[in-house]
């Protein structure tokens, strides 16, 4: 079953009529992960933001995006879209600091979000928050919920943000470069959380990254974007074994070179 179907999505600057996203089409099935890859400025974030109606007012959207077979995301009332965005489609951003309010503890914010969106009592919401933080491999969730955002490391806060999204039990999570701000150890842990997500919750995932290695590890389908265009779309297996576009070949080769340099340095015992 297609949970999300996007057809010929365009994001256009109203002023100079420039197409920032130039007609992108893809499907996300239930319990599947779509990876969107491309270099900086290729339109990955803009594609994701357009789907959930989070683009600035100088831009307009064309094409269509159907969620859960019959919800036309580009033609529903704003309050309905807001509800879907909070409850059924969750977006995880690069910078967790921008999501949490510095004036309240992380626990307070998780509980408030759950009470508002999931109709839980505060007590139930606290239980769910602690449980989901545990799932994130956070050792001492009882203590973590008492902390203010600035008292936690970037990696910890990022995991709290992912925990909050998971606790909402959405149908789909859109994760936009969720590991970029993290060091490599935290990066690996967060990627593992996403890997487990499919097996444990059945939530679908759109994972946006410029790192083809991570996307290969997580996604069954891949959309490659360059300069706002969809240059390739298909199963991860096909794209890696038989890339059709020069750009995809270039991305794969760049990735291989990086891995080889890394392996050589490790073998030589050099610091990396
Ligand atoms: N509000 C806006 N108005 C016009 N153009 C914009 C606006 N916001 C972003 N852009 C442009 O849209 C293009 C695509 O940006 P986008 O953030 O989607 O790229 P990206 O592939 O996600 O890159 P990154 O990996 O750096 O996040 C960029 O050239 C950017 O400058």
UniProtKB/TrEMBL annotation:
It is found in: Cell membrane. It comes from the Bacteria. GO terms for cellular component: plasma membrane. Pfam families: ABC_tran. Keywords: ATP-binding, Cell membrane, Membrane, Nucleotide-binding, Transport. Its main location: membrane. This is Nickel ABC transporter, ATP-binding protein,NikD.
């Amino acid at each position: 079953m297609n949970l999300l179907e996007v057809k010929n999505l365009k994001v256009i600057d109203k002023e100079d009529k420039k197409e920032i996203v130039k007609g992108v089409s893809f499907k996300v099935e239930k319990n599947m992960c779509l990876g969107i890859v491309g270099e900086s400025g290729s339109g990955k974030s803009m594609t994701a933001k357009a789907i959930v109606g989070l683009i600035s007012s100088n831009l307009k959207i064309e094409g269509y995006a159907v969620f859960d077979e019959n919800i036309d995301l580009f033609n529903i009332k704003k309050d309905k879209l807001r509800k879907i965005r909070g409850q059924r489609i969750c977006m995880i951003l690069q910078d967790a600091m921008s999501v949490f309010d510095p004036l309240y503890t992380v626990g307070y914010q998780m509980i408030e979000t759950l009470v508002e969106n999931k109709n839980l009592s505060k007590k139930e919401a606290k239980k769910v928050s602690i449980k989901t933080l545990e799932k994130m491999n956070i050792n001492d969730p009882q203590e973590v919920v008492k902390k203010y955002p600035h008292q936690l490391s970037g990696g910890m806060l990022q995991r709290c943000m992912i925990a909050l999204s998971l606790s909402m039990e959405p149908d789909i999570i859109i994760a936009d470069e969720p590991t970029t701000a993290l060091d490599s150890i935290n990066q690996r842990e967060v990627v593992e959380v996403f890997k487990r997500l499919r097996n444990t919750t059945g939530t679908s995932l759109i994972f946006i990254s410029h790192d083809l290695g991570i996307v290969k590890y997580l996604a069954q389908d891949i959309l490659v974007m360059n300069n706002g265009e969809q240059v390739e779309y298909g199963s991860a297996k096909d794209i890696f074994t038989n890339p059709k576009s020069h750009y995809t070949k270039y991305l794969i080769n760049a990735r291989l070179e990086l891995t080889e340099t890394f392996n050589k340095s490790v073998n030589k015992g050099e610091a990396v």
